[in-house]
Amino acid sequence: MDIFSNLIFGFSVAVSLQNLLYCFIGCLLGTLIGVLPGIGPMATIAMLMPITFALPPIAALIMLAGIYYGAQYGGSTTSILVNLPGETASVVTCIDGYQMARQGRAGPALAIAAIGSFFAGTVCTLIIAMFGPPLAEMALKFNSPEYFVLMLMALIIAALLAHGEMVKSVAMVVLGLLLGCIGTDVDSGWQRFNFNILELTDGIGFVVIAIGVFAVSEIVSNLGDPEERSVFTSNVGTLFPTKDDMKRSTGPILRGTLVGAFFGTLPGTGPAISSFSSYMVEKKMAEDPSRFGSGAIEGVAGPESANNAAAQCAFIPTLTLGVPGSGTMALILGALMIHGIAPGPTVMTQRPDLFWGLIASMWIGNLMLVILNLPLIGMWVALLKVPYRYLFPGIMVFSCIGIYSLNNSPFELYLAAIFGLFGFLWRKLECSPVPLMLGYILGPLMEENLRRAMLISRGDPLVFFTRPISLAFVIATILIIIIMQSPALKRRRKDITG
Amino acid sequence: MKLELRGNKDFWAGMMFFLIGTVAILVARHYPFGSTLRMGPGYFPVVLSGILIAFGLYIMFRGLRKNEKFQGNWSIRALIVLPLSIVIFGIVMELGGFVPALIALIFVSAASGRDFKFIEILLLALILTVSSVAIFIWGLGLPYPLFQEIW
């Protein structure tokens, strides 16, 4: 079988001592920061990302993926133990996970979350290996009009699903695209929006924006609104789930994985909608739905599996099409470009070592997370007890060194301070910065593809509707917009994003 | 009417989009616009700015109608001091080197919180500085001088 020989090739790349080490460090660091309450995955990835830039591309990507899973998984631990979701995807886990913790069953809740995540991760590794290559082959037929519409579709869906109101999210996308114009225009060499500042010639590094908007503004906002934390630590209890727990969880894990794999693959949707859908499914299928909300293990098993499946399958559009489906994937796409890899269908043929190595390391990363998390629970719990006033200076240290190391110049730091201010403003105005980040990273690619599309069509904008694949994307986008506007879904969306 | 605007989150969100869009379009109008067939460097920014202005106006007017207020508390102190600590890190890094910059960063950023206890922060600064030097300078080999000689 082709898939298996490819996977074996991937494992031969991933299982070098160096790459295993980076995978381990990534998972450890990601979980370590991700566990800290009040620091979401975006901030975690943004502040740890500069460390990976010095590594060779494969090692960097493997470590980054480790950070990504670690951050996701760390968030679940926090939800179960402290009832503080680090991100929207973990909101659902809080409902029943925290109740379990209060009943002294935090151990089994964490164990089931880990087992479910590992299962979902394994299935999704296979899914990526199976569907990645044919999808990339299909994508090779795409031309500029298709890419432009596909990116537009990803941006619109991301804005629809972002936290906060849709109109403002779309406006944030536009603002992100506009920010992406800063610097030298690739086509003409013209300097745009550089205000005669030499450092802006290459545009603003996306890490600078990400750290400012996600890490710095998060701290400012946490300092203004200190949250109550009560950690249930005295009785994490036995880690081992009972037979009954296992029996109850099997179905939810299987269904959650499917739900997550589906939503993760679609551009724009992601872990948040997956975990929520999975929770709804489990509640509907349960014999006694009233148990949900008061510590039902199904309410942890399903959403956690879905969450992880979606997080992993989100790599499919990113790696095969070069179109990220979520904010975190946009960051990973940006990191790829920094390493000089043009994301898209050609990655698979030109850098098979990178593609298959990454896929193999995804599975290894998932395995490491299970091994890492369950025995180290005590350490994470201890970390949760550290007061915030000791934590945030540490986050600032990591962030500042990371930013400075990008260009060894203080200019980026000044920019990050400005974006920190803006990030806080956006938080208060309830303008989600995630669509902005996506717009910023996709902006230059979209402009390039739009230009080429217009050259192909001799300036006729109808080109997007006359090419079959492009037309299909347009129709799909319109359908999704209509579905998202339906009153029933709007209500649900409110439930997800709170 | 003027009082109505205070804390009206949609009004100010719209205003922000409108202002940024206006500045961008004023700057970008000098760039060659080109045509739809051959887009110049000004095409994409000008069109985007226009869209942003339209969104800004719409959100502003909607805000006037809905008049929803900001939520949560502000910490003006954190809002000023935390970004300042980043700037100070940058300046001290150039003048004094890695170790002084870190210590300045930790002290100033810690001061943006509510309860600042000197001894605690001193200890924290020591631990964080030593571990950062170990991780970043010795471990990852970043080429920064620990101390810069000041002339």
Descriptive notes:
The complex is a heterodimer of chains A (498) and B (151). Chain A is an all-alpha fold. Chain A contains 22 helices and two strands. A two-stranded antiparallel ribbon of chain A has the order 1-2. The radius of gyration of chain A is 22 Å and the shape is globular. With 151 residues, chain B is mainly α. Chain B is built from six helices and no strands. Chain B has helices spanning 2-5, 9-28, 43-66, 76-95, 98-110, 118-139. In chain B, helix 2 packs antiparallel against helix 3 (43-66). The longest helix of chain B is centred in the middle third of the chain and has 24 residues, at 43-66. The termini of chain B are far apart. The mean pLDDT of chain B is 87. Classes of the chains: A mainly alpha (498), B mainly alpha (151). At the A-B interface, helix 8, helix 9, helix 17, helix 18 and helix 19 of A face helix 2, helix 3, helix 4, helix 5 and helix 6 of B.
